[in-house]
Amino acid sequence: MSKKILIVGGGLAGTIIANGLCRHISTEIRKGDVSITMLGNTDTHMYQPGLLYVPFGKIRERELFRPQRKVLDKRIIFHIDPATNIDVDNKKVTCKSGAVHEYDYLVIATGSRLMPQNIPGMVEGAHWLYDLEGARKMRDALDKFEGGKIVVNVNAPHKCPVAPLEITFMLKEYMEGKGLWDKTEITYTYPIGRLHALEPVAEWAKPAMDAVGIKYETFFNTKEVDPKAKTISSEEGVTLPYDLLVTIPPHAGAEVITDSGLGDGGWVPTNKTKLLREGSTDVFVCGDTTNIPISKAGSTAHFEADTIIDNLASLLTEGRWARDYDGKVFCFVETGLKTGTYVWFNYTTPPNPGAPSQMIHWFKLAYNRLYWLSARGLL
């Protein structure tokens, strides 16, 4: 009897897994022994890390998008029909259309969503770069900015943990390029007692900010934004004035996760090495959807996806487990508009950011072009 693999989510994680499986079990698919079905929310695939460059006019919007059907292997059954209920007890998923899909193995890769509305005044008073509309509005605001106080406000949880640092350093160099740095002050806020959740990254960031005159405020858990007064206040009682507020809004997981009773906040409790939903042997979880305490980043999703591909292919063809996920993450970090560094780490090795260089910046720009090979599972 044919085995059914069902992938809920059409972002990077789900797309890599679907395409990778088509390569690893092509014979079984051709014989009809295995089928792969993906449930997505849209017919368009977006390169989300590219949004970082939109506010600075460093990327064309059309470079961020491809038709999802063209990114996917033609053997994948693809439905634009968002999941509304995931029933892991009866091994079936119900969609918005009312269609019901059964499965033998399920991959949940539903990602995360922005929740600026959770903080009073944030929608009205802040700019962000985590979706296209926000990045466009931030670009327009920067075009009109003539100097003043910029606050870069970081909230938790959020995906792409180095993006707040990147946007901060990029803003500084952008202001220099416009001849506005002597009229501008940047203050970076972070909710815990250092500048980044990863201590080695925080230890690197502090002297880097000191060296270029970027201020910072730690233990800043956002309470509210006052768009009229142009202030942002913390639960700790600190109020900062701003002329331009750039925020990393708090994130939550997909509604279908909470609606299905699979996890608080939309995050699924996940075994950190097996990438299986806790208590399951047939439900894999990948990317932002997991509750694993590591970075919610594209590279995390990629390395997790590679592990899931190997294990699913091995289970289907050999009836055995292939390997565990070691927590590997690799992130380029823009340290301005022309330089960058990187961090890599896993469960046992902490990150150790190196000295920024123009070459690493070029590597990141090159990856922006190679992303589509990555999504197709070829890189």
UniProtKB/TrEMBL annotation:
In this protein, which residues make up the domain named FAD/NAD(P)-binding?
A: 4-144
Which GO terms of the molecular function aspect are on file? oxidoreductase activity
Looking up Pfam families in the UniProt record yields: Pyr_redox_2 (PF07992)
Q: Which Gene3D superfamilies match?
A: FAD/NAD(P)-binding domain
What's the protein name? Pyridine nucleotide-disulfide oxidoreductase
